[in-house]
């Protein structure tokens, strides 16, 4: 099969389409013939040599895919050859075939095309496992999403609104904020022009989904409501910061941080099962949809990475196998 390989750590140009051996489905896995994969920020870090795949994962990038089941490994039940699926991966999505633990498979939702379904697994699993499982956003609460027009943000807005939360977003341009408003965001904050703590007002946010890490830690604490929960999933603004424990204590607040890729298989399967139970019906009935900026051929993976690094996209960037 063909896959995108990383010749050596570096810029987008190191992504090279090459002939590689087909993967074989192990026990409890299925082989998926890939229709499409999606680009995630983690793929950029992996390309640069800063984020190696966990032990046992495919060496090729790609944390999600859609496609058709081509073969079943031993012990797999509930799925059949030919089923149209999408899947959360530990790697290997930038390829024509990938072996996937059966617990990480989801059916393609009603009304979503096979290619477009590749936009769903990573963002639904990340938003669900953090905003809902980890910090229990409730109806009527305020959710602040940093990077509201990102892949994660566009799903966070839709799921936040679907459960009846008030959603605030930050983004770096009026065009991106308009896209967030169209998805249902209630409070629009241009982080280049406004201070998000002031823009939120004195009530603050009950839950903050943060992708900036160190750079925003102190201001995120300022922005939290009493009993607020800050969940950090990105480090785009660095990894080391000083924590003011007095602020945390005064607000009886909590800070949580998670990474999806390295979680054990049983935890990923449990997240995917909850996503299927709680998020898939919202997609099936059209309340929530994948937001896709661009679809490029797999061979143009370098171009897709340049697009992500330029941060001009809104929603997801897909690669069609
Ligand atoms: N921990 C996990 O398990 C996990 C899983 C998935 C994703 N993530 C993380 O989630 C983040 C989003 O991922 P993605 O794939 O959706 O990437 P993406 O579409 O490229 O989004 C990156 C976002 O960061 C925003 N941003 C940059 N500087 C900002 C600032 N100073 N203030 C507010 N927002 C800022 C960008 O907003 P503008 O373009 O408007 O500047 C953009 O929306 C990444 O950091 C990724 O690593 C973590």
UniProtKB/TrEMBL annotation:
Keywords: NADP, Oxidoreductase. This is NAD(P)H-quinone oxidoreductase. PANTHER family: OS02G0805600 PROTEIN, QUINONE OXIDOREDUCTASE PIG3-RELATED. Residues 10-319 form the Enoyl reductase (ER) domain. The keyword Nucleotidyltransferase does not apply. CDD domains: p53_inducible_oxidoreductase. It comes from Streptacidiphilus alkalitolerans.
């Amino acid at each position: 099969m063909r896959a995108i390989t990383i010749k050596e750590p570096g810029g987008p140009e190191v992504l090279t389409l090459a002939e590689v051996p087909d993967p074989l489905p192990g026990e409890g896995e299925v082989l998926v013939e890939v229709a499409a994969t999606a680009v995630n920020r983690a793929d950029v870090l992996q390309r640069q040599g800063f984020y190696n795949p966990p032990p046992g994962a495919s060496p090729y990038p790609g944390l999600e895919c859609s496609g058709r089941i081509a073969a079943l490994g031993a012990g797999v039940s509930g799925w059949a050859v030919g089923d149209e699926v999408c899947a959360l991966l530990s790697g290997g999505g930038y390829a024509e075939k990938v072996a996937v633990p059966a617990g990480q498979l989801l059916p393609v939702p009603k009304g979503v095309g096979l290619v477009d379904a590749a936009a769903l697994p990573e963002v639904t699993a990340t938003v669900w496992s953090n905003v809902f499982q980890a910090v229990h956003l409730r109806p009527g609460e305020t959710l602040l999403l940093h990077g509201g027009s990102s892949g994660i943000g566009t799903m966070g807005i839709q799921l936040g609104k679907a459960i009846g939360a008030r959603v605030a977003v930050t983004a770096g341009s009026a065009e991106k904020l308009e896209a967030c408003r169209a998805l249902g965001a209630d409070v629009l904050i241009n982080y280049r022009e406004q201070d998000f703590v002031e823009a939120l007002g004195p009530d603050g946010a009950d839950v903050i989904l943060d992708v900036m890490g160190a750079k925003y830690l102190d201001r995120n604490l300022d922005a939290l409501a009493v009993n607020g929960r800050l969940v950090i999933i990105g480090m785009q603004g660095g990894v080391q910061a000083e924590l003011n424990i007095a602020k945390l204590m005064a607000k009886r607040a909590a800070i949580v941080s998670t990474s999806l890729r390295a979680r054990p298989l049983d935890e990923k399967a449990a997240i995917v099962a909850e996503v299927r139970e709680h998020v898939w019906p919202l997609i099936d009935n059209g309340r929530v949809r994948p937001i896709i900026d661009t679809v490029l051929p797999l061979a143009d993976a370098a171009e897709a990475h340049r697009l992500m690094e330029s941060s001009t996209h809104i929603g997801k960037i897909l690669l069609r196998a």
